[in-house]
Amino acid sequence: MPELDPIIHAPNRLRICAMLATSAELDFRLLKAQLDVSDSVLSKQLKALEDANYIEAKKRSYNGRPRTWVSLTDLGQLAFNNHVAALKSIINND
Amino acid sequence: MKNDLPSQTEAEDALNAVHNIQQNLLIEYSPPVWLRLIMSLSYGAIFFGYGMTEHENNWALAMIVGAIIFTLSTALYYYLYKIQGIKIRIIPRSIKAEKINAYAAIGFAALGFFSRFLRTDISLDWAPHICAATASIVMFWLLIMLPTGETVVEEK
Fold it and tell me: Annotated Gene Ontology MF terms (chain A) (predicted)?
């Protein structure tokens, strides 16, 4: 039975992983707008995921402006899939 | 985490949050329908032109024009996502998306083959029309259901 991942379990981090699972990379500003949080709150959540090697953040210049692109690593994708499977198993077992 | 398992309701809420934010992202940021329609029709034109081409008649030109429009509209599709902050995935990572893409690739290959073979070898003159229409519809469906190449748009 898959286990819940304590790093992903926090609501904002779960939603960040869910959004990143839909695409190759997402812009920091898009994540911020979707979560409706401040830069510092989002940075803190991303740092926790980055420390676990679940995400990668790359800074690139676009039209002269720096943009931070965030992507889910293979490990992060696996952890997210396992976490979702664990949530489903809780629902099915109860 | 084992000693602090969420209740069934909490687990349902968490899964709903995952579903909602994914679907919201896919629907809110998806490119306009007209662009997806152009992509689908130009893709179908490639199949139609290929099926109708004999040596260097005008249908070869239709195939080339279809390919150019499809390439340009695909580039615009990618660009529109990028300026909104989304880079779409070319090669999918989830098993579900991989399966859909594999079936689609096989289906398109078969449509391309039959588009020409049925008309030239069995004299079914309407085969390119059917194959092109099918390719357009399937491509449009893929662009609606799998807009970023990874997660399927679905009703809850």
Answer: DNA-binding transcription factor activity
